[in-house]
Amino acid sequence: MNKTIPNFTLHISENSIEELFQYYFPHEILGYCSKCPNFGAFWSCPPHDFDIVEYLNQYKFVNIIGIKLSLNKNLDSSESIVDYHAQKKCFNQRLLSIEADFPYSEILISGHCWQCRSCARDRGNPCNFPDKKRHSLESLGIKISEIIKDKFNDSLQWKKGEMPEYLYIVQAILSDKRINQVELSRKLIEVFGRIGY
Ligand code: SF4
């Protein structure tokens, strides 16, 4: 499903967990994570204290949600990045707000957990809110760029000097049962449609 809303296009792709594993490249993706300055600083991110394959296999389906965000041309590069991260947090909060509407499901956010001002892991402490902590597809070793190419017929863009025209926010809903696609798109448009410039 593709739906264009003021400053973004929403893509949804329903897949089985077996299909998701076609994009599981743990050594490559978790290798990138190990070079991140935040590596080991968030409980939502690698290195994990659980088995990723076992975790994903608790579910049978995954709905991958791609938000293609048009960047605000009135902002300079650094303002754009700040705005992108603010919007990402907003989309994550909105997705979490509808998780309970889908029984036996768990959302995967874009980026790292945002629940605390600074993550307890950075101070060597256990997670403050394990019930609110959510992972991302990347943090589980999933190659997002290939998903965007295959499922959304598009490509990821990054900042290379100039800001690109758009950036992606990629989230997901893992579920034990199939999620009605009409209901999912209706709920996403309802909660995401209020986010905009
Ligand atoms: S809930 Fe807080 S302590 Fe737990 S992963 Fe998120 S930011 Fe870190």
From TrEMBL:
This is Putative metal-binding protein DUF2284. Pfam families: DUF2284 (PF10050). It comes from the Bacteria. InterPro entries: DUF2284_metal-binding (IPR019271). It comes from Ancylomarina subtilis.
